[in-house]
Amino acid sequence: QKQEVGLKDVFDYQIGTALSIQQIQEKDRKADSLVKRQFNVLTPENIMKSMFLQPERGKFDFAAGDQLIQYAEKNGMKVVGHTLVWHSQLPPYAQQIKDKEEFKAFMEDHIKEVASHYDGKVQGWDVINEALEEDGSLRKSIFLNLLGEDYITDAFKLAAKYTPSSELYYNDYNIEQPAKRAGAIRLIKKVQDAGLRIDGVGIQGHWMVGKVPFEEIEKSIIEYAALGLKVMITELDIEVLPRNFTGAEVSKRIEGGENLNPYKDGLPDSVQQQLASDYERLFQIFEKHKDKITRVTFWGVHDGQSWLNGWPVPGRTNYPLLFDRNYQPKPAYHKVMSLK
Ligand code: XIL
Questions:
Q1: What SMART domains does this protein map onto (predicted)?
Q2: pTM for the whole thing?
């Protein structure tokens, strides 16, 4: 029966989704059958970030992450760890560290404890997330500011040591854009030239309807694969609402008469069709390069629980995924499936 066939059954690369802790707990398993039918690899949306795994300095809390691993194992799915080194969602005490040695010890302990705890349990780790500025230079994060650029190679070295069985990835957004891509290539080569292991690169893939940079995406797949890396799309969603402004601008825009939630009562058919054709064209590119792509992960199961309903403005109605708020496949899903 066609109903029983999902994305994971028809594509050669893994098809994944981000899951929140609620979605794997008994009390909110509404998406459960959809998850099992469509996906074969999971990324914890939040619970393997440092603020959750090491909420107090030196005190690790693996309970939620372990629960996700168990859920995946029970259902024959893999798990990707996200993420060991990231400037965002750091525990508050770590954000306040001013001393180089103290911050270095925090990073080292974190990688050591987390990587070894999950060694053999996850297929890979986003070792470093979002370390680049848009111009391709290293992001002026607390990691760079306190530790200098060696933190990049140090992190990969530690990860390789404490989780020898996991693949190791660099993950970032907009690294399909030329300047940032050049920066990512420099970063990757730096790790490789140091004789360290890096197995893959994750292009996050937070794109916008009607503006998906198809040509740059294809070039990026080719260029990253040429470095000997597995190429992954790790956080795919295509949103339909304007997002290129910060929280501070919100009230200004509202005063200026802009409706920041234009599709509250439904998505116009024209946008729905554009979304479907954007997804179709994306997967056509992935299919063309399926010898290079190992995984495509969506950042959420269905529109109702996408983070894009809450960012950069809370309380919006966004439509970035292949399934709607009633867990039903959208036109985009059918377009993607019909490629096979
Ligand atoms: C997001 C989650 O989806 C939200 O629930 C959370 O509040 C903030 O982080 N890039 C990443 C992800 O690497 O970890 C982010 O996830 C989305 C952007």
A1: Glyco_10
A2: 0.97
- For residue 193, the CA-to-ligand 1 centroid distance in Å is 31
321: buried, middle or exposed (CB in 10 Å: 19+, 13-18, 0-12)? buried
Write the DSSP assignment of 28-54 as a string of letters.
G-TTHHHHHHH-SEEEESSTTSHHHH-
- Residue 248 forms part of a structural domain: no
Distance (Å) from CA 137 to ligand 1 centroid? 22
* Residue 251 within any structural domain of the chain: no
The residues carrying an active-site annotation are: 235
The whole-number mean pLDDT for each consecutive block of 10 residues of the chain, a chain of 340 residues, reads: 81 98 85 95 98 98 98 97 98 98 98 98 98 98 98 98 98 98 98 98 98 98 98 98 80 86 96 98 98 98 96 91 97 98
What is the total count of domains within the chain? Answer: 1
C-alpha 71 to ligand 1 mean position (Å): 21
What is the interface pTM, i.e. ipTM, of the complex? 0.99
Residue 137, domain member (yes or no) = yes
The set of protein residues with a Cβ atom below 6 angstroms from ligand 1 is 45-46, 129, 204, 235, 307
